[in-house]
Amino acid sequence: MLRIGIDIGGTFTDVIAWRSNDGNSRTMSLKVPSTPPNYADGFRNGVDQMLDSIGFHDDEEITVVHGTTVSTNTVIERSAPPIALLTTAGFRDILNLQRLRLKQPTDFFNQRTVPLVPRNLVFEIEERLMSDGTARRPLDLEEVRAVARKARDGGATGIAIAFYHSYRNPSHELAAREAAREELGGDFEVSISSEIWPQIGEYERAIVAVLNAFVKPKMQTYIADIEHYLSKRLPKARLFITRSNGGAMAASEARQFPVQTLLSGPASGVSAALSVSERLNGGQYLTFDMGGTSTDVSLIRDSRATISSSAEVGDFPLSMPVTEIEAIGAGGGSIVSLDGRVLRVGPRSAGARPGPACFGHGGTEPTVSDAYLLCGYLDPDYFLGGKMKLDVAAAEGAFSGLSAAMGQDGVRCAEAALTVATSNMVARVLPYLARHGADPEDVTLVVYGGAGSLHGPLLAAEMGIRRVLIPPTPSVFCASGGLVAKLIHDLAMTVQGLDIDANTLAARFGELEAEARRWLLQQIEAHQLVSVDIDRYAEMRYRGQSFQLQVTVGADDLSGGSLKGLVDAFHDEHQRLYTHSDREAEVELLQIRVRISGSLAAPGIEQGGRADQAAVAKGSRPIQIGGQSLEAAVYDRSVLTEEATVAGPAIIEQVDTTILIPPKFTASVNGFGDLILIRE
To answer: Which of 102, 106, 325, 557 is the most exposed place for a label (fewest CB within 10 A)?
Structure first.
C-alpha cells in the first residue's frame, strides 16, 4: 500500500509518501520548486522524483491526496472567463449591495469589493418562493431558456443560479439548471446554490454559487491534467483533493464543487497537527504554518480543530464550514522595507520568482529569509540538505540599502527585521487566542512550513508560550496532512426557532446522516474504510443577536423528547467564549449540521528508538539573537535519539528545514520523533 500527499505552495511543491507492506512502513519526503502559473508541472516533477526514489509495483494499492491553491489563486487574481448569475426578480443588484460592513471602521472612503459577475451578466427570473418553501410565483422554464441564451451570447462560459429561499425548496433551482443545460448543451456548466450549501442568507448563498461557477473551468482543466498524468504513470491510483473543512474528497467531486477546495492548503496542515494532538491525548495546540508568502495559525482543542461557519477568500464571504485559519503575518519571502523611518515587513513578497536574494534567482530586495541567513540561523552550504546553496553576498547586498539608511550593519538590520515580523505576529495571535478563551501559557505551539521551525520558537519566546512541538518533517507538514486526511463532508438544514420538538429534530438529523453516508459511499468502497464517525452540530443564538454559535449536539442532548440539553449546551458554550450567559433569555435555533468522517489506511503511531541522554554537536556558529551575538552549537536531527536534550542557543539541522533553539529553551525528542522545546 502506497499513499502520497502533495501540497503546492507559492515557492515549493512538497511531496511525502508512506508505504506499508507486511506490517513494515516507511515515510519519505522531498521538495521541488513550484512552477507558477503551470502548477501541474510541479506536481508531475515531485511525483516523478518520489517514484524514482521509492519505486512502485503495478499491483500496489496507491492513493494520492493533493492540496492545491488553483481555486484560491483564481479568485484572488480574478483569472477566470466570464460567468453569469440567474437570480429571483428584484434581486439583480445583490452582488453589488453586499453586506453593510467596513474593513476599517474609520475608513469611510472604503470601496466595496467589485463583484465577480458584471451587472450586464446578472439576469432576473420571474419566480418566487416563500420562507416556508411554498411557491408564490411559479418558475417559467421558457424564460430560463431565453435568459440562458442571452448569458451565453453575452460571453458567459458558465452560469450560477441563486433563487430566494431555495434553501427551503431547491425545486426551482434544479428545474432551472435542467432547462439551461437542455438549451445550451449538457457540457455547459451550471452551479446552483442549494446544492452547494443550502443556508439562509441570500447574499452569502449567491456568493458560494458564483465562486463555484467562477473557479470551475480552471479547476476542471487542472484536475484533468493531473488525472491524465496519473493514468499514464500510476494507472491504478485513486486521486483525492483536499478541501477547506480539513478533509478530502474524490477528484470527481472536486470537479463539480471546486468551491470546497478554497483554503484547502492551510487546512491540510491543521489536519496533520490534529493527528499529532490525537496521538498525544489531546490538550490545546496552536498551529503555526509559516511558508514563503504568509503565516497562518489555528487552534486545536481536545483533538478537535476549530471549525468556522464562514471565512473570506479574496474579500468574498465563504459561508460554509471551514477549518478556521487566521493569517497573522509575513512569510520567508516577505520583503523588508523602510517607510520613512519605520521598518516594515510585508505585505509584498518576492514569491517563487525571483524569490529571496540569497536564493540566487535574481532577487534584489531584502526578505525575511535573507535576514535568517545574515543572523546565522541558516547554513548557506546546507539549505535543503545541501541541494541548494545560499548566496550570502546577495543577502548582504539586499540589506545594504537599509543598512545605510538606518546607520547599522547588515546583521543588526536583519535582526531588526525579524523583531518587527515577530511583533506583528504577536499583535495578531494574542487577540485570536483571546477570542477563543485560550491562554498562551496553556497552548503547545506546533510549528511547520518552510520557515516555521526558525520563526515559531522566536514567537514562543516573545509570547511566553512554554512548549513548542516540531514534527519530524515540518517543511512538508501540509503535504503530510494528505497522508492522514479523512474523507469529510458537511451537510446542513435550516431549522429556525425552537418551536420544533426534540423528536422531529432528531429525525431531521437522521435524514442528514443518511444522506452523508450515501455521499461517503460515492467517494470510496465501503471495505476500504477503516472507520466512520458522525458528528452533529447546531447553530444557535440569543434572540436579537446578529451572530450565532456552533454547538456540538451530544447523544443525550435530545433525549427524553426535550431540547433542554441542547439549550444548556448553548449557554455553556456562550459562557466559555464570552464569560457570560443568560439562562433566562430566549434562544433561537437557526441551522443543524452533520459532519461525516471516513478514515482510510494512514500512517499509525510509531514509537521506539533507543534512549540516549547525550547529544553530540557537529559544530557551532555565531548567531544574532536577543540583541547580541551568541555561539550556537549545531546538531544533526537525524542522529538525535529519544530523550536526547539540546540546550539553547542552538541550531538543529535536517534535510528539509533548520530549527532554532532560542536561549532559555531546551529541546528533546519524544517517542514519536517530535522535537519538543520547553521554556525554562
So the answer is: 106
Least confident of 23-32, 225-234, 519-528: 23-32
According to DSSP, the β-strands at 665-669 and 650-654 are unpaired
Spell out the alpha helix ranges (H) of 280-314.
none
Domain identity same for 592 and 630: no
Query: What whole-number distance in Å separates Cα of residue 364 and Cα of residue 357?
Result: 5
- The CATH number of residue 594's host domain is 3.30.1490
Range of the domain at 583: 487-599
**Grid cell at residue 125:** 427570473
By mean pLDDT, which of 131-135, 214-218, 464-468, 642-646 is the weakest?
Answer: 642-646
Residue 349: beta bridge partners?
334
**Mean pLDDT, all residues of the chain:** 91
Q: What is the pLDDT of residue 368?
A: 96
Q: Which grid coordinates belong to 122?
A: 446578472
What is the rounded distance in angstroms from the CA atom of residue 267 to the CA atom of residue 169?
32
Given a cut of 50, whether residue 609 has pLDDT beyond it is no
**Is residue 304 included in any domain, yes or no?**
no
From the list 303, 312, 252, 263, the residue with the least C-alpha distance to 484 is 303
Helix (H) or strand (E) segment spanning residue 575: helix 564-578
Predicted pLDDT at 21? 77
* pLDDT over 50 at 410, yes or no: yes
What is the distance between the alpha carbons of residues 144 and 527, in angstroms, rounded to a whole number?
44
Of 170-174, 396-400, 480-484, 518-522, the range with the lowest mean pLDDT is 480-484
Residues ≥6 apart with Cβ < 8 Å to 447 = 288, 290, 453, 455, 456, 457, 468, 469, 470, 474
Same domain, yes or no: 546 and 623: no
Are both 673 and 557 inside the same structural domain? no
Residue 550 and residue 672 in one domain:
no
pLDDT score for 514: 97
Quote the radius of gyration of the chain (alpha carbons, Å).
26
| Residues 531 and 562 grouped into a single domain | yes
The answer, yes or no, to whether the previous bond of 457 is cis (omega within 30 of 0) is no
Residues 591 and 562 in one domain: yes
**Do 398 and 645 meet the contact criterion of CB atoms below 8 Å apart?**
no
Determine, yes or no, domain membership for 503. Answer: yes
The residue among 198, 219, 240 that closes a domain is 219
The per-residue pLDDT for 614 is 58
**Residues 589 and 660 reside in one and the same domain:** no
Residue 528 lies in a domain: yes
Residue 276 lies in a domain: no
**H/E segment holding residue 67:** strand 62-67
Q: Does position 162 have pLDDT exceeding 50, yes or no?
A: yes
Which cell numbers in the block locate residue 380? 548557506
pLDDT single digits (tens) 326-376: 988 788 999 999 998 899 998 888 877 788 999 999 999 999 999 999 999
Alpha carbon distance 109, 102 (integer Å): 9
623 and 587, same structural domain?
no
Q: Which of 546, 570, 599 is the last residue of a domain?
A: 599
Length of the chain: 680
- CA dist 466 and 456 (Å) reads 12
CB 254 within 8 Å of CB 196: no
Number of folded domains in the chain?
3
**What are the φ/ψ torsions at residue 616 (nearest 5 degrees)?**
-100, 125
